[in-house]
Amino acid sequence: MSTHGPMPRSAWVFPALALLLYALATGVGFDFTPSIGGMIFAAVLLAVLFGTVFAAVHHAEVVAERVGEPYGTLLLTLAVTIIEVALIATIMLGEKPQPALARDTVFAVVMIVCNGLVGLCIFIGGLRYREQDFQVSGSNLYLSVLFVLATITLIMPNYTLTAPGPIYSAAQLGFVSIVTLILYAVFLYTQTIRHRDYFINRDEGKVADEARLSNRMLALSIVLLLISLLAVVLLAKKFSATVDAVTAMVGAPPAFAGVVVALLILLPESVAAVGAARRNDLQKSINLALGSSLATIGLTVPAVAVVAYTLDKQLVLGLNAPGMVLLVLTFVVSMLTFGTGRTNILFGLVHMLVFAVFLFMVFVP
User: Fold this and answer.
1) The organism sits in which domain of life (predicted)?
2) What's domain 10-363's superfamily in CATH?
3) Beta-carbon neighbour count of residue 305 at 10 Å?
């Protein structure tokens, strides 16, 4: 969706459909059942939910562009985080509690972004332009923060002694949540104010700004953003029950729910990232991709931790041994890929194959 020009019809149609679907499903008490009607309901729910997430991200981008940095980036990040926390918390607290869902979702986001999305963008760009350039200084900042956040949230819980198993004690979880928030806040300040030039193309900066958004359109986007977020939160319960039922019906492992939530959250930014790579703007692709994974860990994990602590629910964060191997492999491959400032199709293919291994191991652990 473009943030310029007339508002696309889907930007208001899907939020309206989401509210209507919730009202109808709640009014008649309809939930997913393993039948033809249930499958139709699940397909409609997923399509409407995806469309509403797209609409929410579009309106957040519109408002973000108007208010400027750093508030624009923060607004967009908060909008996506609200959606993600609503989905994770609702599924975690459903009829079949899933204390490891936050871990599975965060891990899936890192694998999808750092391998699937990054690999696809690099591969597409390499096919069209042979090689593409980006700012090494900016990518190094992304990776340094991402590696630290992923390690302390997904690996370290397996080796602490205060609480048994792959979990943090209440004190440890609180400390780690504060650390992740501080680190993400400093990164956001660095990206949007202190060293903003690290994250833009060297050829950018002197292009004339397009027409500013009118106050009327800005107000409309703010209202539709709030409606879209409300619609996603309301549909989260229906989505949770549908995911639980489908997972049980097809015999999928519990980690499947985390992959579905991650794909739902990442799809709008993924479309934009691939489009930027096709336009020979790999720097923007990297910003969109790695920025999404940082926001997921830096904001979603503390938010889910607060929910789990408030409701006295266990939060499993530590990965199993194969997951840790894939995470470390992703770290190493990412350092090699982003270490030179130039990419080609082989780098992209390597990342996509690591992502394929991740997906295969989800269903065949």
Assistant:
1) Bacteria
2) NCX, central ion-binding region (1.20.1420.30)
3) 22
